[in-house]
């Protein structure tokens, strides 16, 4: 009997010892008010006053705040160009491509990174490509109705005579593979920010054996 009681007493004692006890942290000498918190913590947190009109009036830039999108790409500008045969020029003279051909040239530029992404679809563009440049799909520098040198050469859209696609991105320094009158590559020194500065001064096109001056052409603005 005595033994049993001793065991019980031991169990209760053990339980009492294992039970959580409130931990109290005594204040530091001088009390909590005496503490100097490091800058940026405690009561030194910076206070940002609301803007005129309050926080709800703020319009956040695209891709930030509540407008954040899931796209990992950041473009400083985008261009959606519909290119047609009727826009093609030899110099300033009209040299139209086929009536049923159309090109959807979609570009996204990040001028900080000197990068241009492209998503190009050509419909009813038949036959092989042809250009003295490295590829036959370009952005040229010239106003509408005029001709000018290629500044960017994109991989040619791939597919059949009714549907061709090319997607990807290029980052400077750029090379077109075509030498200008000064003997330098026409892409040398070019930066995509020049397109943003004057999109009306640039057009995009594609050249084929049948339409070497351009099968479709469209101005960036
Ligand atoms: C472009 O025009 C010039 C004359 O201005 C002409 O000599 C040349 O053959 C034309 N090019 C094409 C491919 O038609
Ligand atoms: C290119 O554009 C087409 C239609 O506009 C779209 O269906 C396709 O997903 C785009 N491709 C890429 C890689 O974004």
From TrEMBL:
InterPro entries: CHRD
Signal peptide: 1-18
Keyword field: Signal
Coiled coil: none
One family name in Pfam for this protein: CHRD
Domain CHRD: 77-221
Record keyword Cell membrane present: no
Protein name: CHRD domain-containing protein
Source species of the chain: Lachnellula suecica
